[in-house]
Amino acid sequence: MPLLRKVNRALLTLLVVMVCVLLHSKLWRAPPPHPQTEHKDNSKNDIPVVICASENRMGAAMATINSVHSNTDASLIFFIVTLEGAIQLTRQYIERSALKGIKYKILEFNPKVLSGKVKPDSSRPDLLHPLNFVRFYLPLLDINYNKLIYLDDDVIVQGDIKDLFSIRLQPGHAAAFASDCDLPPTHEMVRSVGMQTTYMGFLDYRKKEVRDLGINPRDCTFNPGVFVADMQEWKKQKITKQLEKWMEENVKQNLYSSSIAGGVATPPMLIVFHNKYTTIDPSWNVRHLGWSPSSSYPSYVLDKANLLHWNGLYKPWKYPSVHLDVWEKWFIPDPTGNFFLLRPDSDS
Fold first, then answer.
1. Rounded distance, CA 228 to CA 168, Å?
2. Is the pLDDT confidence value at 184 over 80?
3. How many domains does the chain have?
């Protein structure tokens, strides 16, 4: 009988392990690779670039990819994260367009991982899209690199991406961001449209939980739409768990909202990385191009920018928006006909 009990215990343990493995594989899985264009082998010389591609913004992600690919001779691999329903569209967009020669891998993101962590917010429902939170879960993606670049889909890269990738992160830092106070040419636009560049504009300091953080409300913020990540440090510091903690706290305490912060994915990053990040050259995130439909930058600012970022409501694939000609230079029409530009003379 003791031997039988030991056997049953061993079988039960094995069953539990198998169930855990199956659940993990269902939550985070990459679709079967295409035999010609998707790649399983990871070269140490590759620069991994992570970008999300939602179904209704597919053309935006492809414009970003095209700009990165066209402006470097470095070996790249794009990890394109999307939802289950957009996997086929993503692959078709690449394989039936000028991007068919890029090295890439499509990864599926399961929004169930966000259950109980995101509070409904009617003021900016677009900011609650599951892919907005992929940046929190980088270690759970099927990406076997110690260092990577994350890009939002509303950016255009004009510089050589290997210059951004070559940044040396300071010891103990899991990521490098662009500070919101480091780019003087943007300060006038920031003031003109009432944007916030300090923690006071992102967190509700009326809440004790926020005040207890000890963060000066006048401290300068950073933009989490473009960053370089050290995945070993990220895992060591359990960054994902820290971010989830503040997501859950916000659901309970309403510490921030899209009406306050202009986005619900930014505040957890600001909390977790406060005074714990390396700064990147500000030319690698010249932003706020999407904050006003009429306020534009002078040409000398655009020309010197390594990366242009249309963060804000006014995206360059819609109308109105500014600097449309700069963005359209990298736009690749959707070969499936699902994505199209919204322009004054368009039919819809």
1. 10
2. no
3. 1
Angle between helices 87-95 and 58-70 (to 10 degrees): 40
d(CA 229, CA 241): 16
Q: Which helix (H) or strand (E) holds 307?
A: strand 307-309
φ/ψ (deg, to 5) at 215? -90, 125
Collapse the DSSP code of 281 into the 3-class scheme (helix H, G, I; strand E, B; otherwise coil) and give the result.
coil
Predicted TM-score (pTM) of this structure = 0.88
Task: Give mean pLDDT, residues 174-183.
Answer: 91
Is 107 a domain residue?
yes
Mean pLDDT of 59-68: 98
d(CA 290, CA 297): 11
Q: In which residue are the tokens 């031997």 written? A: 3
Q: 260, 158 in Cβ contact below 8 A?
A: no
Whether residue 216 lies inside any domain: the answer is no
Residue 212 is assigned to a structural domain of this protein: no
Give the C-alpha distances (Å, rounded to integers) separating 104 from 38, 41, 50, 91, 99. 5, 11, 10, 10, 10
- Give tens-digit pLDDT for 287-331: 989 988 988 899 999 999 999 999 988 999 999 999 999 999 999
- Total length of the chain: 348
